[in-house]
Amino acid sequence: MSTMTTPTPSASCFLVGPVPFKDVAGPEDDNHITPPEECGHIISTLPTIAFLGRFVHHQYQGAWVIHERLPGVLSFQRSFTPRPGDVLLASPPKCGTTWLKALSFAIMARAAYPPTAGDHPLLRLNPHECVPFIDDLFSAGQDAKLEALPSPRLMNTHMHHSLLPASVAVDPNLKVVYICREPKDMLVSMWHFGNTIHPCDFSDMFESVCEGKSPDGPIWDHVLGYWRASKASPERVLFLRYEEMLLNPVESVMKLAGFLGVPFSAVDEVAGLPADIVKLCSIDTMKGLQVNKTGASGLFYKFQHKSYFRKGATGDWVNHMTPEMAQRLDDIFEYKLRGSGLSFSS
Ligand code: A3P
């Protein structure tokens, strides 16, 4: 019997990394295709809430998904075909998605765009314009734009792991990078971000998160899904924590590059390539760029680019929560994560 196996392609097979999504897809197209009728039928059967009295969410397969993005989840589950080299960045909202997008793009595209190049795409495009958000893309019926991207494709989602189709969840050629964040800081970040589109009371948002009824909540289930997947398949799912990345950004970039199949050589390290990528993607650099000071993007909600870059620090929750609130959220997460080996308590 032959012992030969077919080698599986990885990101390292591609000499040139991902191309900026906007360069291929062009400007955002606000003409959304109406979801199929059966989609409306499924949605009408689901539990529904109005988050903060305004944003309609449906509970689908255990996750609270905002109304506008549910057709995208259904369509993604039915029609997404992974390709060798695909990389999916996953996160709950407000946990460092923008940063992870910038870092992953800069790492994977560094052969075509060295991080110190004056024409680096991240100097003229917001990270969300470089890396497509598939939840919106599929909801708007614009998934053909994902097909038009050359490999390797870099994309992101806020979907729970349990919502990913089997083709993604078990595909050996598709890598998933997950980032999560200390829940109290995530909540504070979500409140500030939410206020840019709809002013709300902090206490209302706090209650919603505690009840698990927040965007892409329950957040503990979101985190647990990817945590378990990373434990089961560490070669396919990398689990990152925002706080650890802030503490050791260069080390984190090297770990990320290794996982993505494009490790830095000793020469790269001596030349300071990982540190250059950290600098390019730092919140100070990103905040200072004209493209991130102005403009907005998003297919269903136009988010100001500047609203993605606030403090970029840990521990801001002390400025917004009473000790009792902090204890309550800590206790909820401790309880929900018990026995998993994952904890946010220091
Ligand atoms: P704060 O609101 O606590 O400052 P997301 O990208 O998932 O929406 O997360 C937004 C959070 O990540 C915000 O946190 C934002 O400031 C922070 N952030 C954005 N870019 C960053 C970067 N380059 N480095 C570190 N943190 C960053």
TrEMBL record:
This is Sulfotransferase. GO terms for molecular function: sulfotransferase activity. It is an enzyme of class 2 (transferase). PANTHER family: SULFOTRANSFERASE SULT (PTHR11783). Keywords: Transferase. One of its GO terms (cellular component) is cytoplasm. Belongs to the sulfotransferase 1 family. Its EC number is 2.8.2.-. The keyword NAD does not apply. One of its GO terms (biological process) is sulfation. It comes from Hordeum vulgare subsp. vulgare.
